Request: fold
Amino acid sequence: MAQLSSTLLYIAFILYLIGTFFFGGAIRDKRKERTGKNRWSQLGITTAIIGFLSQLGYFITRWIAAGHAPVSNLFEFTTFFGMMLVAAFIIIYFIYKISILGLFALPVALLVIAYASMFPREITPLIPALQSDWLQIHVTTAATGEAILAVSFVAGLIYLIRVVDQSKPSKRTFWLEVVMFCLITTLGFVLVSTSFGLADYEAKFTWIDKNKQQAEVVYDMPALVGPHEGKLTKESAGRFEPLVYMPAIINAKKLNTVIWSLIGGIVLYVLFRLVLRKRIAAALQPLVKNVNLDLTDEISYRAVAIGFPVFTLGALIFAMIWAQIAWTRFWGWDPKEVWALITWLFYAAFLHLRLSKGWHGEKSAWLAVIGFAIIMFNLVAVNLVIAGLHSYAGT
Amino acid sequence: MEHVKCECGHVNPHGTAFCESCGKPLEEHSETKKQLLDMRYEGSARRSQTYNKTIIDKIWAFFSSVKVGVTLIVITLIASAIGTIFPQEMYLPPNVSPAEYYADQYGWLGKLYYQLGFNNLYGSWWYMLLIASIGVSLVICSLDRVIPLYRALKQQGVTRHPNFLRRQRLFSVSQVADMDGVLKRVKENLAERRYHIREENGNILAEKGRFSRWGPYVNHIGLIIFLIGAMLRFVPGMYVDEVMWIREGETKEIPGTHGKYFLKSEKFIFETYQKGKDNEVFNAAIDRVGNGMVAKNYQTNVVLYKRIGPVIAGEEPKLKKIKEYKIRVNEPLKYDHYALYQVDFKQNEPYKMAFQLMDKTSGKTFGTVDINLHNPEASYNLGHGYRVELLSYFPDFYFDEDGNPATKSKIPNNPAFVFKMFAPDKPKGEVSFVAIQQTIEPFGNNKYKMAFAGLETRNVSGLTVRRDFTLWILGLGGAVFMIGLIQGMYWNHRRIWVQRINGEVWLAAHTNKNWFGLKNEIRRILDGTGLAMPVDQADREKNAGQGGQAHGAAQ
Reply:
């Protein structure tokens, strides 16, 4: 069952990839302007739906195999987030029928799932705090809310690629490139992790932790930065020697991964720039030249209008109910809780600015991008760096 | 109060932008005459926009501003984020000095963090002030808008002034031959799409989803209820939050219940996931951290008792058994608004220690002494003239700065004893200091010794006792907030005006949001009626380079 589950996820991944190309074809197809849809986009959406069903199959089979909802660790949560992103895209596609959304939403979902797969994929048993029906209620609702909000980012990104003037460098082109660079760096992380994973790289260090105790750590990437007073163990002799050693309070292994991901990202980015001979966003601009800006703007806003209540319900209200049951208090200023509050406050500000201050179009699109950045921060940085009570999600 | 009378005869409050009834713009500057009407709040007279003389007017205007509200939200957001850079004081390990901890762990940044008071950010006066300001802003913002908006929507007339129609975002003029027939078709189509239709002199006002306009105010009320609930936690007696450590076999008063309830712990159970015993699919994950390293269950089997009769000092309480329960994480014991949670535990705390009085040379023993480590006796008589006195007892033994034995706490983590052993041949007794794996004979060589003969341990459960009378208020606030949010977000307020003007059919439409949906709906309504599909005048304005104005506002 567990094996079948993994296979289904793999199939879904491939299908999303194929779907992306179909949507790419749909954009190039000139007939689209007249009819609004064409054979390419039909193929694209069909592939996306089959992919989604396959991933749903992954979810269900894994649930059966594990005996609990597969949303209990970082891998499971993030893949579920990717799945709901595809689901949200499919729904929005049927409301608005625009193919360009698929060309951007599916790659983002692919990145999310690929990123998830870099973390331990085993089925983990539930610790006592997680043994509750609120696990599936809270986590799935919160992830669904975030996924719908992510569609707003996708639409906002399309809007920005279309409107930002690429003829001369400016603050707007710079920040748009930063967004592109972040997406590429995620790809960099996936590629670097996969490469060293395939090569079975392993280097074991002994080091002195902040409590002055000797500890061991296993690197799965060559150590550019070593742990505090780190020494390669005998079995790892001959492995790459770190260039510098970190003080004890810094988690050198994670920092090392970040550095490798950045290197991967920079190499990829520079390569793209050399091949394209222009900014990434500028190279993408022709793809979106036929986009109806008002409609894209409305999709971006609509996604927030739909996603915000779902997010509130899942990430705050259900979260509080469960926290009261499991942790004795509904609110405890745990970093993950605070970041859910921050996300909520941000989108509340977004809605007020849009509805009462008339922030439409580009301003609204930038806000959608920032909102997604906050969600990703909560998913990535808070789990891996700040940790806190939710830290089991990261191991 | 001044009033403004419109040419249609309707009397509007001072400050109204366009007539509540017919929509004729009241106060106009010539340069704005051609632009689209700002439909936000129906052009109603808001206190904050109308009066600005007294201090109260100014405070009112300040807090009713969305700009101020958003600024408060953003400041709170940034402050909240700062609070997650380093752990808050409540998450520090116990028994550390925060001043040293932050500097120790995080260097000068940590020191600065502590000096700025960010170690307790969410409880700081200024963070509370921020939340309170948001609360005030919620109340004032809502009142400032909802009353005039309610009035304007209630007073709205069917027949509108041509200037009102012409300046709507969606507008068209059609010439049709059979006007009555066309309007009848339109009316049928509108009714089919569940529009509420009002008619006056052959003019139509079709409206739906007006209740969604109240969504924002409903959700703000929900937030205010929630904030009031949160504030009530500062009222004494509204909630109880106590810690209770209870040992297996012990019966103890539950703190925070004023002697009303007692709890007995039957057993504490700690289980881990085991390879081979649990689901095979977990094997890989168990291997990663080690067999028996992943917690599976924390459980305390308890019996809840209630005291019968009044509390009398110094008297053993009479107890009545109420129920047996297995307290587990996620499954607290609930009774009479109290909840008992499994939060912590300590395994194998020493409970009883046994020693044998032994002749050191012959190895002969003369009886066993069982010492209850929580309640030791002063003297143990072994018969036949053998007796052991307990001169001193150190439950949590260590040597203090002067090198004298002392105890860190009353908990028997590391018990040590000073015994005086009496035997028929040693009537004055021999003194022996006994600690774990250590014996000292302060007055020279003894004949007898206290030989360790066994240790009995038991588990201790850490429980949290809660009672919270604010929960239902918070729950109510949350529910009202969600209702308001859904009401405002998932429905739209749409209006379509169809009027006969100078032998033409004028059609205008407005929605508070989702214009794409409204346009699609109008397309279906007008299908086959011969009326022209309205033009989106916002597009025209934008193309003419006048853009920037916002018209599709809600609330």
